[in-house]
Amino acid sequence: MKIALTIDNQTINPGTVPTTSGQNLAWVFIDIILVIAILLAAYFILKGAWDLITSEGKKEKILNAQKTIMFAIFGLIMVFLSFLFVGAIGQFLGIDLLNLPF
């Protein structure tokens, strides 16, 4: 009896390490960083909302909560804009910077 894993029509036998191109590895890394950024932004937005709800009307706590929410949203926008800028620069140079072969 043979046990093997098939991914994208490629059979991987037990005890072997699947190989991947550098481009795929780079995209896996970018995807992981993107997920982490989204989760961190969501955490800080929720933390800011909780701080705002529990501020008891104190001005300093309200301002800190608003800053937390604002910076979390700003950070998330910056992450997404970075993809836009890299794509725009690549378009200007005539190079697909988001799909470079490694």
Mean pLDDT: 83
What topology, given as strand order, has the largest sheet? 1-2
Strand content: 5-15%
> SS-based structural class?
mainly alpha
* Distinct helical segment count: 2
The biggest sheet, with number of strands, parallel, antiparallel or mixed sense and barrel status, is:
2 strands, antiparallel
When the domains are counted, the total is 1
Low-confidence stretches: none
Record field, number of beta strands: 2
The helix content is 55-70%
Distance N terminus to C terminus? 38 Å
**Shape label:** flat
Taking all Cα atoms into account, the compactness measure Rg is: 22 Å
H/E element order: EEHH
Overview features:
102 residues, 66% helix, two-stranded antiparallel ribbon, 6% strand
Describe, in short, the structure shown.
It is built from two helices and two strands, in the order ββαα.
Would you mind describing this structure in some detail?
The structure is a single chain. This protein is mainly α and 102 residues long. It has one domain. It is built from two helices and two strands. It has helices at 22-53, 59-93, and strands at residues 5-7, 10-12. Strands 1-2 form a two-stranded antiparallel sheet. β1 (5-7) and β2 form a beta hairpin. α1 runs antiparallel to α2 (59-93). The longest helix has 35 residues, at 59-93. The model has no long low-confidence stretch (mean pLDDT 83).
